[in-house]
Each structure stands twice: as C-alpha cells, then as structure tokens.
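Treating backbone geometry as a discrete language has practical consequences that deserve illustration. The sequence in question and its structure tokens are set out directly beneath this paragraph.
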Amino acid sequence: MTRLWFSRRPLSPAVLAAMTAFTPVSPLVAQTTTAGTPAGATGTATTQVTDGEITRRSSAPDAMTVTARLDRARIQLQPSTGATVHAFSRKALETIPGGDNAGMNSVLLQAPGVAQDSYGQIHVRGDHNEVQFRLDGVQLPEGMNVFGQTLMTRFADNLSLSTGALPVQYGFLQAAVVDINTKNGSTNKGGNVSIYGGARDYFFPSAQYGGQHGKWDYFFTADYVHDRVGIENTTPSFNAPHDLSNQYHFLGHVRYTVDENTRISLIAGVSNAEYQLPNIGGQPMFGDNYSSLLPQAPGSSNLNERQKEITDFGILSLQKTIGAFSLQTSVFSRYSSLGYSPDPNMGDLAYMGISQHAERSVMSTGTQSDVTWRVRPDHTIRFGFQVFGERNITKADATVFNDANQQVSIHTGNGRTGDIYGLYVQDEWQPVRNLTVNYGLRFDGVGEYTDEHQLSPRINVVWRAWKGAALHAGYSRYFTPPPFEVVGGSDLRQFANTSAATDVSRSDTVKAERDHYFDAGIEQVILPGWRVSFDAYYKLAHNLIDEGQFGAPIILSGFNYRRGQVNGYEFSTSYDHGPLSLYGNFAWSRAIGKDITSAQFNFDADDLKYISQHWIHLDHDQRWTASAGGCYTFFHRSGHPTRISATMVYGSGLRQDSDVPNGGVIPQYATFNMSVVQSFRDLFHSRFLRTTQLRLDVTNLFDHPYMLRSGTGVGVGAPQYGLRRTILTGISQSF
C-alpha cells in the first residue's frame, strides 16, 4: 500500500473508467476510513483506485458495489480531460498539518501555482478569486464570504484542483475548479468527536456521524470555532489587536438509492461567522479639526468595528443511468449575506470621513444538468446546461460631514435581479489507441448589471507518447461574468460635497471578462513511485476582472482592466514509497493589466491616468510561488502508528505601490508547519470506541514574521501579516 498523499496528474482517472482515453495515474491506494482511523487500521470500507478502476470492500458488498458504480458514473459525467489536475486523497487531507481542522485554503496552498493572500483568499495562476467550488460535481454559486470558509475539510472524502485549458462543462469561474467528493454514510459509517485548540484562545470542538439504513445513507458534521485569529493581523506583533471571531458550521448529506441505476441526494450547509476587525494604532484623523468635532472618538487602536457573514445552501440531485446514457440533474439554492457595523463612537467618521452600517446579500437559485452518451468505444458525447437566477440587495446607512462640518445621515440602497446561463456539448474522441481529442462548444450569457453573451470553442489533445509519459495541450475560450455584488454608481451623487466624496465621479458598469487561454504540459513517471510534471500557460484577456477592498467594510468589489495578460509555468514532483511520502512544487507567474474601464470612482485620479497609458502588475501578481512537504509513518503496520509530517509555503511577495501603482514588491517569505499524530486502535478495549488520536500541530514553526499586504496597491485595504507561531493540540475519538 502506497502512502502518496499528494499527486499531480494532467488527466482525471475518470477517463480510464469511461474507457475513452489513456490517463496516467499513480497506483494510488486511498484509505477511506472513519475519521481518525489511520491507514491500515480497521475501518468501515477500503477504496482502491488503480488505473482508473474503483473497487471497494466492506461488510456490505452489494450496497458498496452499487455505490461504487454510481460514484463512477457521476465522475464520468465531468472528466477533466486535458486539464491539469492536482488530487488530494483522504489520506492527504489527514496528513496536512491540522488535518481536518485545517481550512480548505490551507489545503489548496499545497498545489503549485496557488498564492496566499489576506482574508483567506487564494490566487490560482495569477487570477483573482475566479475559483469555482463543486460538491459532487454540482457548482455552487458565488457568495459574499470573505473571511469565512463555508466548506469544511472534514466534509471531503477527497478533492481535486483543476486548472489549465478546462473542458466546456466548466463555465463562469475558470481560474480553477475545486471539485469536492463528499463523505457519505456508505463509506464513512460511525462517528467521531474531537476537541482541538491552543494558542490565542483557539477552541475548536467538532463532531461527525455517518450511517446506512436500507436504501438510505447519511453523513453529518458540525463544528464551532472560537479564536483571536479570525482576520490577519494588521501589525507584525504576536497577537492582533481586536481580532476575536466566533464561527458555526454545519454540513449534511442524505442519499436514497432507488435501484442500481438511480440515486437521489440532498446536501445542505449552514455557516454563521462573526468577526472583530483588527485595529491599526497611530492613524491620523481624516480632517484637521475632526478632533474637536468628534471629541468622543477613540484612538485608532481602540476602534470597535465588526462584521458578520452568513451562508446557507442546499443541493438536491437526481442521478440516473439508462443504457448508454448517464445523467445528473440538480437544483440548488444559496443565500449569502454580509453585514458591517462601524465603531459605535464615530471612530470610522473620525478616521475615514464616513461611518456606515453596510449590508449586502445575494440569493442564488438555479439548476444544473450533465449528460454522458457513450456512442461508441472511441466516442463519448457529453452535453448539459447551467442556469442561475440571482437577487442582489445592497443597503447602507452612513453618517458623513457636509461642507459646513455638520453631521448628516445618508441612506443608500438598491436591489437587482439577474441571471447567468450556460450550455455545452463536447465529444471525447480516441482516433488511435494512445491519442485522445476532447473538443466542444460552450455558450454563456449574463443578464445582470451587464447584458452579454459568448460562444466559446475549446479543444484538448492528450498523447501517450511513450511508457509512463503523457503530453497534453489545449486551447479554451473563456467567458467570465462579473461579480453580481458590485457597487452601483448611482450612490455616488448622494455623497457629493461631503467628507465621503470621491475624486473621480465616473462609474462605468463592470463587464464580463473574455479570454484566450493556452496550456501545455507533460508528466513522466521516472521510477515506481516517483513522477515529475511540467506545465506552461498563457492567457490573453479583454476586460480582465479584478477585485479590490475599498473603505472600512471588508467587501470586495469588482472592476475591469481593458487589457490583461497572464502567463507562467509550473513544475511538480512527488515520491512515494512505503511509509515515506515527499512532494515539491514551484511556479513562476506574471499578471499585468492596462486601463481601468469600470468602477473608476474607487481609484485615485492620478492612478487612473497612469494606468490608462501603462501596463501595471496586478495587485495579486506574485512572481514565484513554491510549496513542499513530507510525511513519515513509524510503526505503520501496527495498531499504534506515529505520523510526522511537515509542509512549507514560499511566496516572493505580492505587489505594493512604489513610484507607480503596484510597482513595488512585498518582501519574500517562507513558512514551515509541522504535525505529529499518534493513533491508538482500541485503546479503551470497548466495542463502541475505536481509534483514539492525539495530535500536535505547529504553524509557522520558526516564528518568522511576514507581510501579506502592506496596505498600499490598487484595490488594497489595510496591511496584513501572516500568522506568527501557533501551537495547537487535539484529541479525537472514533466510535
């Protein structure tokens, strides 16, 4: 049994499962066990993925065979043929420091080309937040979340990050696709409770339980997070001032297997998070005489600003196989809201010239259907569609000073209903034994703040040139609708001649981004267990979408660069042998833009003039990104294995202002994390209590202070620093 806990491959193993193309995959043996059960220990089920075929062994072989067949059919609906896929098995998720307690973004940072940013954001291949999340193949609409992560790592049985020239079934957000295969009651029977915590008041209890009864199976997980690291520190100090957060999460999955060809499933989630916004001491007041006008205003280090984020979603899916046809059709809904409360003593007014209670919400409801038709062994036709209907509401009650230095209140608010839609058709063709061509057309449209549409051709070619090697190349035409939660320009007129007036009054509508995307790469197995890969990409963009944080509320707003270019390359290697696993990635990227053509009121007039005539680096452009990790398991054949793992993340630094916008670079950094996990099988000699697990995790092992944002740059708000050394411990019990 291998211990590979991170693998990179240019194709999905679903291609082999569908018998349409060669897909180089590692001989991965992934242990799907009750949470906390180490690989090799007694669990409820074992899943082996070898050459794209899935076999399962359990005490319920008939139910498991049906589950495996339906899971295989679902995966084949959306293969990533020709794209670059970074796969994380269940073992990988458990091995990363923090394990299931780690945030989803911490996991994704271990893939090549993923850059770290403030507020929990990640940037994949030089794009800003254009990452879509899918649960069992169903895309979730965008939400308002900035700090919180609705999707918990412990809800994932495994996940993958797909980048590159994506096939036509992936639309709307296309920098990367995070596809999460959720846990279920068939393969994750039993429960687990854990308590995790330590430095900075960190307290993180959680529970999960799965089971099966007849044709029904279910899985639920919930947690509560209390800590003082909810938002990145605004200073390099060990503890952030005013940074308490409380978060509640729940995710559930219920399925009913009608027969061997039909299954109905429901996934639902709830996230509720409250944050204090960290302060920056020593800040000057907005106006020279504001100290006399606002004598009650606290110092900038004593402000009390807060933000609350809520997300609820549900997905109801029907999966059906009829002869040569397989389909999954789903309906879904997602509600996401964000509310900002300013300092109650008019501190925001004193330091920014405006104090506002701001609220935004987005309600998205839609449907998605995907169909696979196996016409012949060398031809597989896929087609489907997605439709989102969305309602966006924005309102704020602001206090500002007028020209007479009098406090006045201004109410703003607007709502809009719109839709996003896309449909596609593609053919996966195998003209010769070692060559696969995947080509298709996608039609997308948006009718929200802008009304646009586009027909997008895409093609990918995969060639098994020699033993152990796979080469791929592709072209994709992309259409990316703008974020629906953009700021309406009609509000600007109400702030004229006040302390919140902007230098620029123009506010053109944010438009859809249109891209030409090219990608090519190779993967080679050097020795059994050792593989290397290289990938290069180039994106030419029109109306490139970027996002920035403007004002005190941590609300990201979109804007366009008329022209954009993003290019780079990635190298990855992994080695897996027995109890030892190693991996390493590094990536080079360049992202530039020219001429801001929408939401201009957010920017300084001089910056707009310069950018209209010069190319500049995007604020999230990071030249070099690297990650590495290793794991070794002692006593791995016993009932009490000890696992030691470590990871590293390196960034050459995001952008900051110099003599030109985004002309400078934040200092480079490298952080190291480590984990020690001790498992005991049947420690209490009880048939109800199974594996007990103790863990110790250290984030930023060498306590290296590092900066993520300096507070300057196009669309950049406050300075942000990475987490200092944090020691956390935990205990979990499976039953």
In short: The chain has one domain: 59-734. Helices lie at 14-17, 61-76, 90-95, 104-108, 290-293, 347-352, 605-613.
